[in-house]
Amino acid sequence: xxxxxxxxxxxxxxxxxxxxxxxxxxxxxxxxxxxxxxxxxxxxxxxxxxxxxxxxxxxxxxxxxxxxxxxxxxxxxxxxxxxxxxxxxxxxxxxxxxxxxxxxxxxxxxxxxxxxxxxxxxxxxxxxxxxxxxxxxxxxxxxxxxxxxxxxxxxxxxxxxxxxxxxxxxxxxxxxxxxxxxxxxxxxxxxxxxxxxxxxxxxxxxxxxxxxxxxxxxxxxxxxxxxxxxxxxxxxxxxxxxxxxxxxxxxxxxxxxxxxxxxxxxxxxxxxxxxxxxxxxxxxxxxxxxxxxxxxxxxxxxxxxxxxxxxxxxxxxxxxxxxxxxxxxxxxxxxxxxxxxxxxxxxxxxxxxxxxxxxxxxxxxxxxxxxxxxxxx
Amino acid sequence: xxxxxxxxxxxxxxxxxxxxxxxxxxxxxxxxxxxxxxxxxxxxxxxxxxxxxxxxxxxxxxxxxxxxxxxxxxxxxxxxxxxxxxxxxxxxxxxxxxxxxxxxxxxxxxxxxxxxxxxxxxxxxxxxxxxxxxxxxxxxxxxxxxxxxxxxxxxxxxxxxxxxxxxxxxxxxxxxxxxxxxxxxxxxxxxxxxxxxxxxxxxxxxxxxxxxxxxxxxxxxxxxxxxxxxxxxxxxxxxxxxxxxxxxxxxxxxxxxxxxxxxxxxxxxxxxxxxxxxxxxxxxxxxxxxxxxxxxxxxxxxxxxxxxxxxxxxxxxxxxxxxxxxxxxxxxxxxxxxxxxxxxxxxxxxxxxxxxxxxxxxxxxxxxxxxxxxxxxxxxxxxxxxxxxxxxxxxxxxxxxxxxxxxxxxxxxxxxxxxxxxxxxxxxxxxxxxxxxxxxxxxxxxxx
Amino acid sequence: xxxxxxxxxxxxxxxxxxxxxxxxxxxxxxxxxxxxxxxxxxxxxxxxxxxxxxxxxxxxxxxxxxxxxxxxxxxxxxxxxxxxxxxxxxxxxxxxxxxxxxxxxxxxxxxxxxxxxxxxxxxxxxxxxxxxxxxxxxxxxxxxxxxxxxxxxxxxxxxxxxxxxxxxxxxxxxxxxxxxxxxxxxxxxxxxxxxxxxxxxxxxxxxxxxxxxxxxxxxxxxxxxxxxxxxxxxxxxxxxxxxxxxxxxxxxxxxxxxxxxxxxxxxxxxxxxxxxxxxxxxxxxxxxxxxxxxxxxxxxxxxxxxxxxxxxxxxxxxxxxxxxxxxxxx
Lengths: 377, 448, 330
Fold this sequence. Notes:
- The structure holds three protein chains of three kinds.
- Chain A is of the alpha+beta class.
- Chain A folds into two domains: 56-149; 160-375, Orthogonal Bundle (MetI-like fold).
- Chain A has helices spanning 5-36, 41-44, 156-162, 167-198, 204-214, 219-232, 239-263, 267-275, 280-291, 293-309, 312-318, 327-334, 342-367, 370-375; strands at 56-63, 71-73, 76-82, 92-96, 110-114, 117-121, 126-131, 142-149.
- Chain A is elongated and about 110 Å long.
- Residues 1-5 and 369-377 of chain A have low confidence and may be disordered.
- By secondary structure, chain B is an alpha/beta fold.
- Chain B has two domains: 2-158 and 339-398, Periplasmic binding protein-like II (D-Maltodextrin-Binding Protein, domain 2); 169-333 and 406-447, D-Maltodextrin-Binding Protein, domain 2.
- Mean pLDDT of chain B is 86; it is low at 1-22.
- Chain C is an all-alpha fold.
- Chain C folds into two domains: 2-78; 91-329, MetI-like (MetI-like fold).
- Chain C has 15 helices and no strands.
- Chain C has helices at 2-32, 40-78, 91-97, 100-131, 137-145, 152-163, 175-182, 196-222, 226-234, 239-250, 252-267, 271-276, 286-296, 300-312, 315-329.
- Chains A and C meet through α1, α4, α5, α6 and α7 of A and α1, α2, α4, α5 and α6 of C.
- Chain A: It comes from Mangrovicoccus algicola.
């Protein structure tokens, strides 16, 4: 692969830049979600996530204390306090008392609110509201404040997902579903793939085509007949049912991918073993299985991801009671009846991404050629 | 194992005394609740029996419904298991068809219940149930009619409405109204004039968002239904819902165009007419609260406070008024609403007992006294409403000359949860009302 | 604790059961038809005829039950009306071909079929071959792979923050519109723009599926015997020639598999359309339409008819695979 040195260097740079561009394109949307997952839920729908990374001028709606706090000073009734009071210090750039002109006044100016009321706001948020007659009502005057806000991030979204009741159990349920639902189809498919790739029997080509055809069966189609079948044989809703269902739905892709990989293995090795008197079972176990590890690993990753992120199959075949809910189901539950709490989704998306990524990293070393290249010669 | 042991031990304590009151939000015997109806429940011992309930509520709503269920469990000893799902409609179809239904299903759309009843998958309620509803619910006969479907053995009552929503509401921020020097209108004429006034001031009157992911378009159906009730007599509304008059009848096209008066005018709606269809209905009300406000008015049902900014106090930070009727048309004060229908999908003794529990005042009062619950049951103490807002909504409900159920929920699924939605999105995007209505009617013709 | 135990035991039991089946049946076959003795050659022939079916048995039972049976069930349903009781012949299909939404779905599915597999496979191939050459390649791979690990609901939220539209003058929270307005343009309600909105939805699937193509193709690229590459370099081929003339031909089979897999996935694409537009603004696709009719409208007859059309659409790929498998046999 070594070319001429100069050409190689510039080419390497081009590769670096191309990969970097691809990676940036691919991660920016997700990065937006990551930033959003640390933002306040009301801000999420009001400003772009990229604005939250730098200090920005924001309009806040604050409120003076209510008439309960008024004191009498001569002819006037007065309320004093600080607009930033509970949250901490801030700096007023401009302010206003009307929603139509939220930045009408500079700090230190006095606004005439009509009916003998006047309001003054200082730069540090101190205000003085005075009235010529006693103030009534239960709430204070609304004040709009423009202030420079440093970037604010919160862990609340993550807290509400992690702290949700039953999330630990849901996590466990998910593993109980996904691991067998990943292992069983691989095992069953590997044998079938070997038969379709290396054994001679009539109807082989048709069978391969059928497997491809079954790839396209929409899942939704199978839900009712299958659940009816499970109920009929007394399996009902439970882990066995969902493992079988995931196995059924995952098998066509598993067989198709594995068969393709296995049929690409060097013919001489397998023919050689046959000549030496090995049975197909021995060939499969001693030669084909180890050589197919990268393909097994990549399918395992996809099947794991698919079952991990699945919601529909779990709901139908496992049920929605507390002891049966999987992670995705629990998260959808957190979204509320009308699914509006996106901030929960942003955090949940990142928490649920973590496990598949760990699996991917762990499997990655099996994806390399080592095993294959080492034995093919 | 210890987990289950602990649980049954708790259940034992509950059976033996009222000591499990900590599970019940209101201790029996205290407050103005109808505790007699609670004590009456104790006559039946259902311990060991299980009732499963499936419904659309998750999150906070789920906690609320479970707090009601807890009283039934405490009184009878039955074990009631509620499971909520955001895709309830799809799941109940699958579960009933596959033969593993819950005992009780809570339908947000009666149309779906009618479908299942026709297929023989629901158990009818008794004559006594029908008589009770007719007698004890405000406008009781109409609640019976709404839940009477054609079953395998002829028409029968297939469910009971419990928990009602009011849709004819307009939300606004009082202080923003003050800043602009405007008042909530009393008539539709005033509302239209107010819309013009706000627009002339250089402000935007309405926030309208139809976006809802897979259900995009539904908020517009509420608008059209509300306007239908305000431009046509209720009988015409009923004919429209049952397709006795075609969807492209001039009366319906007129109502759609009334909606267009609000939504298809760039100066009337935040973001201009082009933003209506793509703005999410959950984001839409946030425009009321921004500074300066993006809009001053928002038409939406009683559930919308869930999507207001955190800490918003209803009645102070934000308030609502009745979506008014035309003074000049003399159609009274029509109110559009919706409700959840509780039906039996798998019969049992305890299931019937639970349906009977829903007819006791305590089942209504416990939820009323918390939040988000309206009821047409006349036998409850309305003083128990948990907050003044609910009471005000309840008054709108009781003050109605005409109450009509959300039409899109009553239409067949392919219309009410299909082309009606998509058609309204097309209309908001600029398609002529007549064309949209004709396309919807064509689909309706195709399913009959 | 109990659940972990239960799960582990069943996992181990399940795996052992599978192994026991394959091992046991094979051993039984060897014993019944020994390869030695007077009738060895007849036995070998018989054993070779039986053994493939031992290997295929469990798969065929599961596939038959979980996929083939529902297909026939749908075929039956598609010939009946909404209630499933009355036979309507081809009525549902006749209705389908007169329905404007259906024709729109077919057109959109065609667009998806052309664009997504091509783009995802090409980008996956580029990513696979480039990341293998640099030190931080495995990190880059993981980042490109990441979208695969995100659920469709999560993906819908991510892309909401890209395509979101706010009216001119308001602060944009969608990245695309923020970029457009920063450059002085007017914001656009992207997902409502007819025709092109289809491509915006396709981009989401390409974004997800590139990781799939990359992982499979990367494994194939690494499986290429180095001698062939070295020989080409000795002959003076530049890296591009090596890539296009030496490597690509050797992984042609895998490229076809990736292409086929993504094509089939695209045929039944549902979640993205469902979550982003629900088929409105001219973005309807077959699988979403099937869902609408089956579960929203409660008409399993029509829903099933759409599903059957969907499955017929895969026929050309099946024929191609039969011919491929035949060629391998020779």
